[in-house]
Amino acid sequence: MNLMFSSGPSLPNRLALALILSVSLIVFDHKFDGFGTTRVYLNSLVSPLQYLANLPGQLLNASASRFVSHERLFNDNAKLTHDAMLMNGQLQRLTFLREENDRLRSLLNSPVQDNTRKVVAELMAVDNNPYSHQIVINKGAINGVFEGQPVLDDKGIVGQIMQVSSTNSRVLLIADVTHAIPVRIARNNVRLIVSGSGSLDELLIQHIAHSSDLKVGDILLSSGLGNVYPEGYPVAIITSIIRDESRPFSQVRAKPVAQLDRLKYLLLLWSERTLEEEPEAEISVK
Amino acid sequence: MSIRHYAIALSIVIALVLQIMPMPAMADLYRPDWVLLVLSYWALALPNRVNVGVAFFTGLILDILLGTSMGVHSFSMCLCIYVLAANYKRLRNYSVWQQSIIIGIMAALYNLVIFWLQHLITDIYFLFDYLWPVASSMVIWPWLFWLLRKIRRQLRLN
Q: What is the dihedral of CA A257, A57, A150, B127, to 10 degrees?
């Protein structure tokens, strides 16, 4: 018969030790951000578990795509060809416009917009932590991903990279309560800050004076202030404005343009500025 | 020789994988606290091998996997496992249904402590949806208990 706790400290002492350790870890991690680089290694260490957890879903997806009907593939193909045709048509115009824009900007002595490098990433897992909205994607430090990198989908801004590990990384969505993004209204360039509400289909715009020029349906573009998100990508559309004069500010709600609840493929952006800062990133990005 | 040494660790790893496995949003709400359940079983069955120390390290892994601040899950996990390991003699004599209620209370404590710690760190609001795992953990407990006891007896773990 094994004696219980025959070696080491007694059970209450162990508890006290563990709790004190936990609390100091929380303080160390949260207040002082003490796990900056260690977290990369820790994340890489546990990433096999994430791949394992992702396996059943991937197998299901693989078998589902194997049994797609011929007709559906045919229709998809036709639609994609059609889309590509239209896009290419617009693209011809875009290169011309970009050159013209650059020329005009250089005439005005304002900085020419930098080209951005893009890489497609795939969603690996959605976090099941109910208190925060994070997702895991399949690109990591070896692909040149860095902390604070903007992440987009085909519609608009999704969020930013929060933690990097070697082969995957964690994205904080714009709908998270701890996230805020500077934007401007496309119609009149009024600057605002959009913060997450904790629910995936709603964003809040706080501290808006009753007199400011906002309308339901206004498109909010990223303003490029704050140096995290590049300028001019769609973020959200205003859905409701409550102007209650008895309150100090009007209550404005918006809906994210990106479909945060059905993400599959994502775009990672490298602006020229960040590429210059991290030359090794350029090499690893194809 | 081989599997007997790794059985407990393996069961904890499987619980961790189940805990982070992507699920449809509908089912995600009702995901039982797999790691807590498995650790609870071992804390009741073999408190000399699984107690606060194992709970602490498993909680840390959970923190890394879920992207929470280091220490949040380990704090909560240690607290629950301590209560179970300290009262293991009494709890072992309960019927599995009574145990299930105790596990429900532990799961509620676990989730509330995590919520409370997270609330201190970021300002999140409480939704009653956060307590669905308590119900599903209570439902899962008898089956998990039966399965793990079968494994323990088969491998004669002690």
A: 60
Span of A4-8, A256-260, B119-123, B146-150 with lowest mean pLDDT:
A4-8
CA distance readout (Å), A19 to A35, B39, B59, B71: 19, 17, 11, 9
Of the partner residues A25, A126, A198, the one whose CB lies closest to the CB of residue B125: A198
CB contact under 8 A, A25 and B71: yes
**Which of B14, B68, B84, B130 would you mutate first to test chain A, the one with the most A CBs within 10 A?**
B68
Q: Is A65 exposed, middle or buried (CB count within 10 Å of its CB: 0-12, 13-18, 19+)?
A: exposed
CB–CB contact A198 B124 (8 Å): yes
How far is Cα A144 from Cα A284, in angstroms, rounded to an integer? 6
Q: What are the tens digits of pLDDT across the range A77-123?
A: 999 999 999 999 888 888 888 888 888 888 887 766 666 788 899 88
Q: ipTM score here? A: 0.81
Contact at CB, B86 and A11, closer than 8 angstroms: yes
Residue (of A243, A247, A260) closest to A196 by Cα position: A260
For B52, the closest of A6, A15, A53 (CB atoms) is A15
B131 close contact with A: CB closer than 8 A: no
Name which of A182, A212, A168 is nearest A47 in CA terms: A168
Closest in B17, B66, B69 to A52, CB measured:
B17
pTM of the model: 0.76
Q: Is B117 on the interface with A (CB under 8 A)?
A: yes
Shortest CA distance to A237 belongs to which of A175, A200, A186?
A186
Q: What is the pLDDT of residues B65-114, one digit of tens each?
A: 888 888 899 999 999 999 999 999 999 899 989 999 999 999 999 999 99
Could you read off the pLDDT of A12-29 as tens digits, one per residue?
A: 888 888 899 988 888 888
Q: Among all residues of chain A, which has the CA nearest to that of B64?
A: A43
